[in-house]
Design goal:
Rossmann fold; four-stranded parallel beta sheet; globular; 8 strands
Length: 239
Amino acid sequence: MYGRRARIGRISPSPETAGAEEWRRSLPPDVCLVETRTLIHDVTTEGLTEMIKQVERAALELASAGVKAILQAGTAAAFFRGIGHDADLIQRITAVTGIEATTSMTAVVDALRALGIRRPAVATPYIREMDEKLSDVLRQSGFEIAAIEGLGLKRSIDMGELEPQAAYRLARQVVERAERPDGILISCGNFRTFEIIEQLESECGLPVVTSNQAGLWRALRLAGIDDRIGKLGRLLEKY
């Protein structure tokens, strides 16, 4: 039986090509991914508003597969309406399924706190509007922004077509111009990062949190899986 220890549910934005694949290649033995999708094209307020209308339908599909935990992926989906929107999404999922849930944004905040990061240097593929919304939510969650820089991409599918070195170069760039950063945050679950987390931590001497890494960590812990996973940074090696 696949998923003998646990089945993890993931609600992914429809164009996503990076996030679920990174998870599948990194899950512990006898843990499997069950995925469903919600339609979106552009990572804008309008696109995200339409996407989150589909949350209950997607959550019920995952519940039918007997998952132990559900992640609402798409970091921007949980911050674009401001502080507390992630908690609203979690409540909507648990209300219709009775299953523990989280969002990528919730997991990012939990991961930053677990690693003791207070002043992250933030790298994203987003347009400026989304960067500003993310910064606002992080500040209201108790963090200071050492620097933030985005690639200005609107279409989710374009984000997923970037190679991991694009995330690496952007992260290095934002760290270099940041003022006293104590960690690195790379936002967006469709931005490939798993191959470069360990390298960034080693070269920059800073802990790294990425949306997809934090989401995997939190979903596993919610499902009762406490395995440590190497090569994905301090977060999954120590917490």
